[in-house]
Amino acid sequence: MLKTTLRASVATVSLLAATSAFADVTVYTAGPAGLIEQLAAGFTEETGIAIEFFQATTGNIMARIEAEAANPVVDVLISASWDTATDFAERGWLAPYTSPNAATVPDFLQTDTAVAQGVAALAIAWNPTSGTPRPTEWSDLTAPEFQGLVNLPDPAQSGSAFELVAALMATSGIELFDSLAANGAIVAGANAEALNPVLQGAKAAVFGAVDYIALNNMAAGESIEVIFPESGTVIAPRPMMILNWSDNQTDAQAFIDYVLSDAGQAIVAAQNLMPARADVAADRALIADLTILPIDAEAVYGARAETLDAFAGAFAQ
Amino acid sequence: MAKSRAAISPTVALAAVGLSIVVAVPFLAIVLQAIFPTLGRGSFAAPFSAFAGALGDAALIGMAGNTLLLGFCVVVLSAVVSVPLAIARALFRVPGAAIWDVMFLIPFMIPPYIAVLGWIMTLQPRGYLFQLAGFDLGSFLFSLPGIVFVMTLNTFPVVYFAVSRTVETVGSRYADVARLFGATPARAFWRVTLPLSTPGLAASLLLVFAMAIEEYGTPAALGRRAGFDVLVTAIDLRVSDWPIDLPGAAILSLILVILSFCAFLLQRWVLNRRSYEATTGKPQDTSKRELGVWTFPVLALFALVAFVATILPLLAILATALSRTISGGLAWSNLSFRHFAAILGDTTGALKALSTSLSLGVGAALITGLLGALSAYAVVKSRARGRGVLDVLTILPNSLPGIVVAVGLILAWNQPWLPITPYNTSLILLLAYCCILLPQPVRYATAAFHQIGDNLEAAARVSGASSLTAFRRILLPLIAPSLLAAMLLVFAVATRELVASVVIAPVGVSTISTYIWRQFEQGSVGLGMAMAFVTILITTALPLIVLSLMGRRGSLL
User: Fold this and answer.
1) Chain B contacts of A159, Cβ < 8 Å?
2) Whether the Cβ atoms of residue A121 and residue A236 lie closer than 8 Å to each other
3) Model's pTM, two decimal places?
4) Which of A130, A249, B426, B557 has the fewest CB atoms within 10 Å around its CB?
C-alpha cells in the first residue's frame, strides 16, 4: 500500500509541475475575469505572444506584489483603482510609456506611466420590485420609504466607494451620511456583498454600486436598475501600468497597445465598462453623459484616515 | 536499542525534515516579516519598527476579546451538539449509522463562504425562508449567536468523528469491568468510558477552537454588520486593502498563534496527566448495544441535526443554482439549468478548475497523512530529543490565517537566490494546503497513538522488526481509521480552500474556490452556487467510493 501511495503522490506531483509554464507577458489584473480572458485571447491571436494572468481583487494583487518585491514577476498591472497608479509611480516602480493608440484617451485618464483600460462609475443600484419610489438623487435614499433598506459598500474596502464618500462629504457635508445612518442604512462589505441583498429584495438600493456589475446583472435578467444622480457621481478609471523591472518591455507595450486598439476597447465595452478612448462607442451611459464630482486626489487621499473616521463615526451610532 | 541514543530513528528524522519544509519555512518567513517591515523588498532595515503601530491599535484588545469569545462559544456549542451524537453512534446500534455519518460529513464539504451565503440568502429579509413561510430571521443571523450557529454547523463534524472513533476504540469493555464491580451504567460511563475518550475529545475541541479563531468568511460576512470585529478580519483588512500592511498582518497573526498555542498547552496538560491506553492487543468485544426505548428520540436528534446542518444549506445552494435570476425568487417560472449547463459545457473554465483542485486535494491528503502519522509517532512514542519542538511545529499552522500563510510562502520561496523554487507552479498551492491542514492528521493520529499500549511496538521490536517495519506493520494499521478520517477532511478542505489560494495561485491557474469567488465578485451568484454544488457532490462521493473499494468503509464510517 505504501508503494501505491508513493507512486500516486509522484504522479500527482509531476502532473502538477507540468501545468506550470513560462509566459511571455505576465499580467496581474483586477476583475472581471471574462475581460482579461478575452483580451488575452484576442492579443495572442493578433500577435502570437502568450499572456499568463493572475486575477484577484486590487487589494490581493497589491499584497502579492508587495510580498514578491524581492523577485518580482509581473510585467503589466491592471488595477481597479487609479490610486494604485499614483502610489506605484511615487515608489518609482513604473516604466513610462505612451501608447500610439492613447491619442484619443482624455488627458485625465492617462499619465506618463499609466493609462486607463476602461472606466467604471458609481451609481444607485435600485430594485424596481422593492416597493420603493424610484430614487433619482443620493439624498432620496434618506427618505422614510427607504428605512432600513439601503446598503453602502465599505469605503475602507473599496477605493471607488471611498472617493464617492470623500466627494459627497465635500459637497453635502457629513449630514448626508448622518441621515443615511439614522435611516437604518448599513455598511455591507465590498461591492458584490452590498449588491446581492438588493437582488433578493432584502434591501432596496445600493448607495454607490459599481455600475458595470449592476449593468451585467440587469443584462442577465435581474430586477435591478442603475441610476446616475444628476448632482454628480465619481468615476473609477482602471489604470494599466508597465512595471520597470519587466524584461519584457516591448511585449508589454504591445499588450497595452492592443487593449487600446479598436478590438481591445470593444471587448472592454462589451463588459459594460466605459471605454477609455473617447472615440469608441458603447451601449451604455458614457463619461460625457454623467456629471462628475470634482476630486482633488492629493487632498482627498491626504485626509483618508480622517474621512474614514468621520464616516465610521456616522455609522457607529 | 538502548545504546543508540545518539542515533536518530529514521521515523523521527523523516518527520523533522517534512515539518521543516512544510511548516517551519513559511512560519519563519512570517516571523521575519513581523520583525523586518521591508522584508518583501529583500531588506532587513528597521527591525521591530512595525510593532508599536500594530500593537498600539486601540481596537486590538476588543478584537482579541471577541476572538476568544467566538472561539469559546463555537467550541462549547460544537461539543454540546456532537458529543451526545458521537457517543450514541459509538456505543449503540443506531439505525442507519452509515447514512448519518455521511450526512455529518457533508457539512464539512460545504465551503464556509458558501454555507454562510446560503444562510444569508435563506434567513435575510425576503430570503427563502420568508418566501416559503412569511417570516425571516435576519436579526438572529447578523449577531454573535448567528455567527456561532453558522460556524458550529461547519465545525461540529470534527468533534463528532473524533469522539465517536475514540469512544468506539475504548469500547464497552472497561465499562463492563466497572459494572462488574458494582458501578451503575451512568457511573461507569462518566468515570470510565468518557475519561478514557479524553484524547479524542480534547484534540478535536482544540482543532475547533483554532478553526474558529482562524476562520475569516463567516465573521466577515455576518460580524461586520453586528459590529463584531475579530482579529482575523483585521488581519485581512491589512493584507487586502490600501495601504497594504504586511508587517502589521504578520504581527497580528502571531497573536492568533499565541492564543491557539495556549489552547494547545491546555490540551497537552489534560492529555499528559494520565495514560489513556485502551488498545492493548487483547481481543476486543466490538458488539454494540441496542437503544431500546431510546431509538426514536435518538433518531429524532440525528435527523434534526442532519436537517439543519446538511439538508437546509444544500437546499439553499441548490435553489440559488437553479434560479434564473436571484430577484426572480422561488418560482417555477424562474427555474433554469443554465448555470449547470455553463459548468458542464465548460464555457467558463470550470472543469479545469475542478481537476486542478481535486488533484491538489488528493496530493495534500496523502502528504499530510504520511507526515502527520510520522510526526505524531515522533511526538508520542519516540524518546527522541527535541520532540517537543516537533509537537510545537505541528500546532503552529493551526491558527495561522490562510492569507498570512500565503504571504509567508511567497516571502520564503520567491527569493532571487533560490536555484529552484515551487513558487508560481501548482506545487506552491500544495505546500500551502499541507501547511494549513497538517494539524488535522497530526491531532487525530496523536490521539490514536495515546491509546495504543507501548508493549505492542516493543513486542514487534523484540521479534526482530526494524523501527520502520514496526511503524508500518503494527502502529500504522492501528491508527489507520483515525488517520483516514483526518485525510478525508484534508481532502475536503484542500479542494475548497479559498483564502490562501486567492493570493498564491500561480498565474493562469484556477482552483474551485477561486473560480467560485470570481463568480461572486462579478455578481454571478447562481453560477458560483452551481459550481459549489457540483464540488460538494464530488468531494463527498469520491472518498466514499475510494473507501468502499478498499473495503474499509465499515471501519471508517
Assistant:
1) 242
2) yes
3) 0.85
4) A249
